[in-house]
Design brief:
396 residues; alpha/beta; Glutaredoxin; six-stranded mixed β-sheet; five-stranded mixed β-sheet; 47% helix; 20% strand; globular; binds 2-acetamido-2-deoxy-beta-D-glucopyranose; redox-active center
Length: 396
């Protein structure tokens, strides 16, 4: 066989194989689907370029799940042509990734990478609460997960509550159950049943009096206390209702001062955890476009900022923070009101932000493709000028 024929043959074979991993779904799926099947579905629009970028990832996920013998099927659906299905999943933007398991639907909102999506699929498709049967299994789990919520004790109303919280929030974090004697000796418990949170090499015991209802507590505490934060994580952290204290770092190699400020934040926050963990999450961030948009000016790197994601507010230190004392004064000021909140999401701020973004966009256009931008802008202006000229010309 000549090479061209072989090539075409392999291409056709490959296309058939990959399409076998991912099923194209339409509205009829709503009636043909059997309840016992779990699906992960990508909703796309034909014109959406982000959706196209996701195609290879989606095929990898399809083939990976198939080769693992996973019970989860992989589908995709043109949401513009299949309104019924898109409506059922309340799809509002593209691409949307949703998991359908029994009667429950789960929204995926993390990074759109193969590993992150596979991790989500495994977590959601299995039992939402996994049991830890031995100390070894416990230790294996804790070495793999930064954050774990663990129910300890016999059947109880608290367990029922824990199960239903897990069913809803398993999209975000990991839930387990364990018998008392499975846990390491240094985990001391005053009473059972209880819910424990393991994170940042320590643990916390949930109590309703101190922590409020279980669901909001899990939602509030499901992030690491100190971490590298990207815009996905920052956006998600908004749901916790806590403030996020950040050190903003330059995108590429960090200068000495950046390393120093990062260490300073890590040190202060780990030593003063009892003071700050109620109010803040901490972390460092590189590539600060989101923060620039929020503050509406360029940011100095490295520097500190605290953001309130519930209202798009932010706090800046009065003096540049260089020392431990200054950092603590700044954080204390944010908590007790000594440092004023700026920004926010009122109408004036929103208009200002719109103008800022339009300006940033135009500047970018003019620096990247100056000639084209000039024509694009001058064309409507010329028409407007001609229009005014014709309208305002004195009639004879
Ligand atoms: C998924 O998230 C989007 C955006 O937050 C929301 O509009 C939609 O209703 C959610 N869908 C489901 C099934 O929860
Ligand atoms: C953050 O914003 C929310 C919503 O507007 C507000 O209730 C809360 O008090 C703010 N937190 C701080 C510390 O300003």
């Amino acid at each position: 066989m000549d090479t061209r024929r072989t090539l075409i043959f392999s291409a056709v074979l490959l296309a058939t194989l990959t399409s076998a991993f991912v099923e194209e779904l339409d509205d009829s799926f709503l009636t043909t689907r059997t309840v016992d099947d779990s699906w992960i579905i990508k909703f796309y629009a034909p014109w959406c370029s982000l959706c196209k970028q996701l195609d290879p990832v989606w095929h990898q996920i399809g083939s990976e799940l198939k080769s693992l013998g996973s019970p989860v099927k992989v589908g995709k659906c043109d949401a513009t042509a299949n309104i019924g299905l898109a409506k059922e999943f309340r799809v509002k933007g593209y691409p949307a990734i949703l998991m359908w398991k029994k009667h429950l639907k789960y929204n995926y909102s993390g990074p759109r990478t193969r590993d992150a999506i596979l991790d989500f699929t495994h977590r959601v498709s299995g039992p939402v609460v996994r049991s830890l049967n031995s100390l070894q299994i416990f230790q294996h789990a804790i070495s793999r997960h930064d954050i774990m919520f663990v129910y300890v004790g016999a059947t109880s109303p608290l367990k029922g509550n824990f199960m239903s919280v897990a069913e809803e929030l398993v999209v975000h974090t990991h839930f387990f159950s364990a018998a008392r004697d499975v846990l390491p000796k240094d985990v001391s418990l005053s009473s059972l049943p209880t819910v424990l949170l393991f994170k940042d090499t320590t643990f916390h015991t949930y109590t309703e009096e101190n922590d409020g209802d279980l669901r909001s507590w899990v939602n509030r505490e499901r992030f690491p206390y100190f971490s590298k934060i990207d815009s996905f994580a920052l956006y998600a952290m908004g749901e916790s209702g806590k403030l996020v204290a950040l050190v903003l770092l330059e995108e590429r190699s960090l200068c000495e001062e950046s390393e120093r400020l990062k260490d300073l934040l890590r040190k202060v926050t780990s030593e003063q955890r009892h003071m700050y963990s109620r109010h803040f999450y901490f972390g460092f961030m590189t590539g600060n476009d989101y923060i620039k948009g929020l503050i509406m000016s360029d940011v100095i790197e490295p520097s500190f900022v605290v953001v309130n994601l519930s209202n798009d507010g932010y706090f800046l230190p009065h003096v540049p923070v260089k020392t431990e004392r200054q950092l603590r004064d700044f954080l204390d000021g944010v908590v007790d009101g000594g440092v004023q909140c700026q920004g926010g999401n009122n109408v004036v701020q929103r208009i200002k932000r719109l103008i800022y973004e339009a300006k940033a966009m135009l500047t970018l256009l003019f620096t990247q493709v100056p000639l084209l931008s000039f024509f694009l802008l001058s064309f409507p202006l010329a028409i407007a000028a001609a229009f005014f000229y014709l309208c305002c010309k004195p009639h004879k």
